[in-house]
Design brief:
Elements lengths: L21 H7 L7 H10 L9 H11 L17 E2 L12 E3 L3 E2 L4 E2 L9 E5 L8 E5 L1 E4 L5 E4 L26 E4 L3 H5 L24 E2 L6 E5 L2 E5 L7 E3 L15 E4 L2 E4 L7 E3 L5 E3 L7 E4 L2 E4 L5 E3 L5 E3 L1 E2 L7 E2 L32 E3 L3 E2 L2 E2 L9 E2 L6 E10 L5 E8 L6 E8 L4 E10 L4 E7 L2 E11 L1
Parallel strand pairs: 22-23
Antiparallel strand pairs: 1-9, 2-8, 3-4, 5-6, 5-9, 7-8, 10-11, 11-12, 12-13, 14-15, 16-17, 18-19, 20-21, 24-33, 25-26, 27-32, 28-31, 28-33, 29-30, 29-32
């Protein structure tokens, strides 16, 4: 259905090629160029006021008359008179209908093909209860004998849905039969409804100036065609932005806000060096290192933890530590700045092992108790040892000596070699005597040391060492 908006401004007119003309338009339809007076009603209908046949007015009129089908607006209905079939009339299947005249009786203006929609409707024998017929035609031709022919007609259109042709409603009509140009249900079926979902198969033109277009209700967003450029606005045309249909090069992208246009596509800029990347699903992700303690999950990116590195109840990263000795936790000093006794013990069977000295920061090591010169832990009499640490070693040995025919004796030796070396400590019990004695000595780094016993009955009660 051909539809026009008639109020087309002169500034929007696209000039036709040089060989085209208003005369050519009517010649294509087999008609002579009407007079200026005859063209004036057409010009008025196209919104061309004060028509006088000027060059620019003719260009505007031809543009209007050549406009393609499907424009939103009027369907070019014609409010004519009641017309009469010429000659013998028309058969029930005839596709051309000839009228005795086709003019506006008020002015004598001959109605032309341009005055009608591409498809228009007529009613033959209107008002007849048994022979009224609806037909559609597409062409009007004014003949030399003042008759007019309606051609390419489809006969017998149904007065109810689906509004298609039916032989039941096709009738032969004799000469002298009445015909009117009507608005049957077929015409209204072609119109869009504001209350219904519609499928538009033709072309609709919105607005009559370049400042208009399609705008969306309750928003300031509009879109329009401005000459050869499609434009959009989000402030009711206070500002307009170009959008070219074949390329996105006309789009404006911020060079500082992370938006870019590549290969006619708007995209987000992603740094190749700052850990952002697109996944196979097209979504933007924060990359994480598989060796740097970060993991991605559906709830976000988080830091991996261990048994001793945890998140506390407030969500902060914390160590799993305590000032009270316990298993699998990190030692923390108490309010006095010292570690509790028992933190550095390597055995739970000897509570004297590794007691801390707050003055030196060193640790005593209880290396065993021996009876009858038999060691149960670490050290024994009459055995050579070496200080392999990087610190001097302070050694304390508690012993029991008893006279048994000969004097009981205990002696300490140190040496830089495996030789007997220097005697640095000695305790001895004389005849009929016995008692507990302590010797102590220092062993330089890398030196050898040993404690010898002789005579009587000798055994040590404890052997303690500390790095200085």
């Amino acid at each position: 259905m051909r539809k026009y908006i008639f109020a087309i401004l002169m500034g929007l007119i696209v000039a036709t090629p040089a060989q085209a003309s208003l005369w050519g338009y009517f010649a294509e339809k087999g008609q002579n160029l009407p007079s200026v007076a005859a063209r004036t009603p057409l010009a008025d209908s196209c919104g061309i006021s004060g028509y006088a046949g000027l060059y620019t007015q003719n260009l505007a009129l031809e543009t209007c008359l050549r406009a393609p089908d499907g424009f939103l607006g009027a369907t070019l209905p014609v409010a004519g008179a009641t017309y009469t079939l010429a000659g013998s009339g028309v058969t029930g299947s005839g596709t051309s209908i000839t009228l005795q005249t086709l003019t506006l009786p008020q002015s004598g203006y001959e109605l032309l093909d341009a005055d009608f929609s591409t498809t228009f409707y007529v009613t033959l024998e209107p008002g007849s209860r048994t022979r009224q017929e609806i037909a559609s035609c597409t062409t009007v031709t004014q003949n030399a004998d003042n008759t007019a022919t309606l051609s390419n007609c489809t006969r017998g259109l149904l007065p109810i849905s689906p509004y298609t042709a039916s032989t039941t409603f096709q009738f032969a009509h004799a000469g002298g039969t009445s015909l009117i140009f009507s608005d049957p249900p077929q015409l209204f079926n072609e119109l869009g409804s504001l209350q219904d979902d519609e499928t538009v198969t033709g072309e609709w033109i919105f607005g009559t100036t370049t400042s208009k277009g399609i705008c969306f209700i309750n928003t300031n967003f509009c879109i329009r065609s401005n000459s050869s450029t499609i434009q959009w606005s989000d402030d009711d045309w206070l500002n307009a932005y170009n959008l070219n249909t074949s390329t996105a090069s006309a789009l404006t992208a911020s060079s500082t806000q992370g938006i870019s246009i590549d290969n006619a596509k708007v995209s987000v800029k992603v740094s190749s060096t700052q850990g952002m990347a697109f996944g196979v699903d097209g979504r933007l992700y924060q990359q994480v290192s598989s060796t740097r303690g970060l993991i991605n999950s559906s709830t976000g990116t988080y830091i991996t933890t261990t048994a001793n590195l945890i998140f506390n109840s407030g969500g902060a990263l914390d160590i799993n530590g305590s000032s009270t000795p316990g298993a699998n936790i990190i030692p923390i000093s108490n309010v006095s700045g010292t570690l509790a006794v028992g933190w550095i013990a390597t055995s739970t069977t000897n509570t004297h092992q590794f007691l801390r000295s707050t003055s030196t920061g060193a640790y005593w090591s209880d290396l065993g108790v021996s009876h009858n010169n038999t060691s149960t832990v670490g050290r024994a009499l009459n055995t050579t040892y070496q200080n392999t640490s990087t610190f001097p070693l302070y050694v304390v040995v508690n012993s029991y000596l008893e006279y048994s025919g000969t004097a009981g004796r205990i002696e300490a030796f140190v040496s830089s070699t495996l030789s007997t070396g220097l005697k640095v400590a000695r305790q001895e019990v004389a005849a009929a005597g016995s008692g507990y004695f302590t010797i102590s000595f220092i062993v330089p780094t890398g030196w050898y040391y040993k404690v010898l016993s002789s005579g009587g009955v000798t055994f040590f009660e404890g052997w303690y060492e500390i790095q200085l």
